[in-house]
Write a structure and sequence with these properties.
Elements (H helix, E strand, L loop, with lengths): L1 H4 L2 H19 L6 H30 L8 H34 L2 H5 L6 H28 L7 H30 L5
């Protein structure tokens, strides 16, 4: 068992098989592009926001307490991997969310904040702003901080401050975004 759980790819494959068995075994006649899109939207959203919270509640606050000789391990190995999944999960969350709205037939009404889709539309716009923040502010600045893109010490420090503000903006925006998404269908 330890060998199985030590292999993330194997765990994910078995989890996918279990999900497919559940979908087609108990819900087979109801499996649609929409239901699969919602499932993927939730998966990518949890991955994205989970990593956002990990970065803001764990990694960033702990960095000052990490001994200097250990910091390169975070910057060269952990942070790049986290940021890879973070940025792609952000993009795939938005793409799958837009897909669900499109196949459901209300993407236009939501994006133009028309009732009864104004609440979900507000959540969608917030998520789009957050994803843009990830791709166009956080990731380019983090590439400097991590040394992926060459930068002076001053440029790295400035980039780090901007990346932190953008990341904290996403933490702030995640709360109203969650409210909008959870209560979009509340009556």
């Amino acid at each position: 068992m330890a060998k199985f759980f030590g292999n993330l790819n194997a765990v994910m494959i078995v989890g996918l098989i279990a999900a497919l068995a559940l979908m087609f075994g108990l819900h087979g006649d109801m499996v649609t592009g929409n239901s699969i899109g919602r499932w993927l939207h939730l998966f990518f959203g949890v991955l994205w926001i989970g990593l956002l919270y990990y970065l803001n509640f764990v990694q960033v606050p702990l960095m000052p307490t990490i001994p200097d000789e250990l910091k390169p391990a975070v910057g060269k190995h952990i942070a790049p991997k986290v940021l890879f999944y973070f940025r792609w999960a952000a993009l795939l969350t938005v793409v799958t969310g837009l897909y669900v709205a499109w196949v459901s037939g209300w993407v236009h009404q939501a994006m133009t904040l028309q009732e009864p889709y104004a609440m979900i539309g507000a959540g969608m716009w917030i998520a789009i702003v957050m994803a843009a923040n990830v791709w166009f502010i956080i990731w380019p600045k983090q590439k400097r901080v991590l040394g992926i893109v060459e930068a002076t010490a001053d440029e790295k420090a400035a980039a780090g401050k901007i990346a932190l503000m953008a990341s904290r903006t996403n933490v702030l925006l995640s709360l109203p975004m969650f409210y909008a998404m959870v209560n979009a269908n509340a009556g």
